[in-house]
Batch of 2 targets.
Target 1
Amino acid sequence: MDLDQEKQEQKQRKEKILSFIRNKDYQPLKIKELMMILAVPAEDRKILEDILKELMEDGSIIQTKRGKYVAPERLNMVAGIFQGHAKGFGFLILDDPTLDDIFIPSELVNGALHQDRVLCRVNRPNYGGRRAEGEVLQILKRGKKELIGTYEESKNFGFVTADDQRFSQDIYIPKKSAAGAVTGHKVLVQITDWPKERRNPEGKIIEILGHRNDPGVDILSIIYQFELPIEFPQEVYDQISNIPMEVQDQERKGRKDLRSLRMVTIDGADAKDLDDAISIEKSEDGGYRLGVHISDVSHYVKEHSPLDKEAQKRGTSVYLLDRVIPMLPYQLSNGICSLNAGEDRLALTCFMEINNKGKVVDHQIVESVIRVEERMTYTDVQALLEKPDEMLIQKYNHLIPFFKDMEELASILRKRRSKRGAIDFNFEESKIILDEKGKILEIRAAERNTATRIIEEFMLICNETIAEHYFWQDTPFVYRVHEEPDPEKIQKLSDYIYHFGYRIKGTGNILHPKELQKLIGDIEGSPEEQVVSRLILRSLKQARYYTQNEGHFGLAAKYYCHFTAPIRRYPDLLIHRIIKEQLKGKLSKDRFKYLQKALPDLAKHASMMERVAEEAEREVEKLKKVEYMSDKIGEIYEGMITGITSWGLYVELPNTVEGLVHVTSLDDDYYIHDERNHLFLGEHTKKIYRLGDQVKVEVIRADLIQRTIDFHIVH
């Protein structure tokens, strides 16, 4: 029996035993009794012991004082990941993503650190919209053993303050374990002794990244903090060295030759990993033949190869302002897999026949050989569609009708999506400009233009078409799902927006996305548009990868997947493999079974890595915003209140920078926090601060270590 089969068999045994113990009719049993009922031979006792130990370690079962095994839920206990908070309290994040997390007060954390796997007792269940509360009973498995932080030295010892504030305790460093670090060094510290009662964790410094003021150390710290892999293993480079960097004659066989078809790529000016090209032909009846041609990455990244294992582990490319941590090495992502203009490339093509109402009436999926005619930027396409200058006209005049057809079709598709209720946020996202040393020069609100919307619409319709096709093929698949929001969250949103004069119909158990779409339309152009948009977004669940098709609430789509970016997203690569196997009739019974077993874990891991990437990207953005404001202390700005909490008001400036006005700095009166109505009320002056209010603020602090900005209201 090979290692994979052995692992699979062990997994099946584990699932069988867990299912038995979780059965509603199960009574707590000792190991001897389990062996008897499950007919486990005496010689296999060790196997059963190991399985029970594994199940206890991940909190799936517990052993009572009498040695009996039982599911923790029976004893009002639950396992999950502890998420810390800078103020010492935390939350238990449950394994089931559809369940709400549990609040853990600081006095009941009992030595748990952020990301530890813990067993908790639920002391107060979720009731009347109030979050359930619990206490940590046991730490099942420590999470992070290595942290990034800033070192501070004193006479006889030092300590490290973790960059991630969710690790609320400083780490004590004995003098002999400081490795030559001095105050201000960014360091990688390994925890050698965990916290006990009132003692902080102890650690040793294993790497010095540089001084916190050195160029590039700030972003490097975040890369280390999120454990993002910088280098690829040697075996990956060995594999790449055997991949030809030009399309070979034998690779064209069995593929549709589309090199004579006009197609372009449209991306940001600095993009180098170009994985989608577009072709379009308008028919006499007013319909369109849209071609979305996606790089055939799966041709080069073979399943279970070193390249594949590393891509699977990374899950996604991570974009950190001045650098990319790619899912695939640059030799592939910027080379043979990138749809560079004028070069033959292998692709997976989806042709869609779309009528003049935006409905896909027919489609075809083929393996192809393509050659992109032009590498276009969003800026140039936008200019060509609006007010092209002479130089652009001279260069691209022959393509203007081509782009006009694209614009026309994208508009039709957008109207169709809007009609069915798709939610389309009009957020002001940040555009952060850095110099060559990584120092921030400017922050401004980034605009979405016509060209970006064209590509968005074409990718959306392609992803929907692929998902629907493979849903009806009834093959194992990876969908992109977005479940309906929790009624409680929508009720809270409804309470929030009531104060602005808006309302939502259907806040019970059934909510159609059209209601939120209507709300977004109602707030468009209003002073409170940005704040209400964010409240709507926070009320929605996060999209994830899943093997069952459960639709996409935000897009109001019955079928959705990610097919269009296999250079930078692992689920797209998985889908490409399934498509190619199905096209070639290679989805055998054994392969079908293998995919059914393997895909759920792969989808779950990809969702988890996507969250890590998003968090890292957010932290870099936050860091650079603090850096930008650090030399603007004393300056005064107009801003909007975008958040109200018991500790103060969050105010956002027009350039998207957000800071906190701490409640203690509201010094013209004693202010009472009205949680239900989301406002602060002055006890004597009756002055009110509420969401969406415009206020003048002075910048009083920009803390690069804590990555926070503090404002003071100017009267």
Note: The chain has a mean pLDDT of 91.
Target 2
Amino acid sequence: MNQKTLKRAKELVSQMTIEEKMGQMLHHAQAIDRLGIPAYCWWNEALHGVARAGDATVFPQAIGLGATFDENLVKKVADVTSTEGRAKYNEFIKHGDRDIYKGLTYWAPNVNIFRDPRWGRGHETYGEDPYLTGQLGMAFVEGLQGDDLDNPKAAACAKHFAVHSGPEAERHHFDAKVSDQDLYDTYLYAFKRLVKDAHVEAVMGAYNRVNGEPACGSKRLLKDILRKDWGFEGHVVSDCWAIRDFHENHKVTGCEVESAAMAVNNGCDLNCGCVFEKLIYAYKAGLVTEETIDEAVVRLMEIRLRLGTLPERGSKYDDIPYEVVECKEHINLALDAAQSSFVLLKNDGLLPLKKDSIKTIGVIGPNSNSRPALVGNYEGISSEYITVLEGIQSYVGDDVRVFHADGTHLWKDRMHVLSEARDDFAEAMTVAEHSDVVVMCLGLDATIEGEEGDAGNEFGSGDKKGLKLPGLQQELLEKITATGKPVVLLILAGSALDLSWANENVNAIMHCWYPGARGGKAIAEVLFGDRAPGGKLPLTFYASDADLPPFEDYSMNNRTYRYFKGTPLYPFGYGLGYSKIKYGKATIDKTSGNVGDSVKLSVDVENAGILQQKEIVQVYVKDMEASTRVPLWSLKKVKTITLSAGEKQTVDFEINPRDFAIIDEKGNCIIEPGEFKIAVGGQQPDARSEELTGDSCQIFDINLEGQVTAVEF
């Protein structure tokens, strides 16, 4: 905290009545006119662009940003987001608009671990890997808040703390039971990085319990770990109406008064919801002290001062003009982010398409002309949407005839309620038969994978029921493929699907996530080779539902690439390009050393193709002699580079002591002496990746001597 603003915050709080203090602890904080404190709504969203506050640049959904593996790109996206947010805030205030979604405290990023592909909110995260989630989460926080924390451009929030990733239908009463090993090895890592290294301003608790304690009132999570162990100085906000769950669903308290006291006494400063309206009764009953209330309100007023939301202290960002919103530079960044996120899963040579050799294109599928399939959830409004169909039509112009059919509803068996099942199959077949090449656009959208309670989630409380394409999509794909026409399958979805049949039967598959408002333009440019797809998978694509442990089981055994013992359809870290990327001989500066040593690694990377290509160079580490369960491999370093045709770059890494550390059964972070393996390449060091790419990682053995050494988690 800034000491000057901290002192002033204490002065302001000392002048408030107890009722006024408590009024600041609700997400819709009331005005205190006599102290010059205007009303303020803390609730704002900015997961992939300013959300729910009118027009803004709509970037790819967070999981797509995860697929870029690109910290610099994610930081730029967040920087643009807070710039547009400031521009809009500046104008809202001029018009006296202090409504919800109009403030500067953004409840993003979501750094929960996408541990199970059925989880509906997984597309709000950066994927299944703790390290990647931490790196991209830090980049987002740093971009959103800016470099001057005494004068932040916005305030970021790490959510949902902690051990939170479904099932959505049970989140209000579910108890996530987790070992200390998994807690620290998987679920807390990214939060720690955002708190300690990126200085995130806020942390949001989760709905569920964690080992018996409701997350928004957990002494262990909020007081012992977050405040004491990590030294967090910012504020904690509850998830919306989560504190009400204490007494209504978790049954750990008897009423709203007890729930309010439990939350505040354990370190929750701000209530998204209304339970803190009963906080006055907890105070009068002696369940919470004024000193505890003061601590919470001081934290809230201090960040409001630094943000410049009080008239007495302006901000250096007060002059950001409205004209920056959806400006050309921001739109271009969104297109670049989308193209960097697309993951080419299969290509028999059909891609990139050659416009000059095509007279007709069939664009088929429920996501072919769908705006919802562009934007995911927690989205803003765009002044222009470009669907896949519209992007292709615009790209080819009058030179190529584009036919179109939805073919089927996203998940129902008919397009129209009065029709028979498969009512659009005939038109889809006709389109395919009259086309030289077919672009199939299948997948999901945020109405069927998302948050419990969201409008439209009649499909399954937000979670997926399995990994199959919903409705009649698979049947439609098989019928279109049976025509014998070349098929490019585009998947617009925020999670992994079972694409086993497609992998064996279609010519090319590209996962496009939810690519942003103008995603159709980005897709068309990649389909025709103006840009190459640049992403890698930030999560494992399993071959079958049978590979998944029970959804409710929070043990990491046999989950994610780090612990999955089976053979995936597509592995974490996998993705093809249009150009052949060749890895030269890697070098390492030592093959033996002492516990606590760093290791330097270099590798030459060359673009042997004729198109510019992004490449994501990945480094994995494995402890071969650990005394406890450890990951099969763990991603430890990433660098994203862009190579022109024929270009070669040397990429350098430093593997530090923390990269050799493991988490033991008690949650301790230690380095044990013994043999380690370090792998470097454009993929994960596993047999399936090698089978799919024809390439293998270079692997080094290194032996570290000495004693078991504790290192900072």
Note: The CA atoms of residues 107 and 453 lie 18 Å apart.
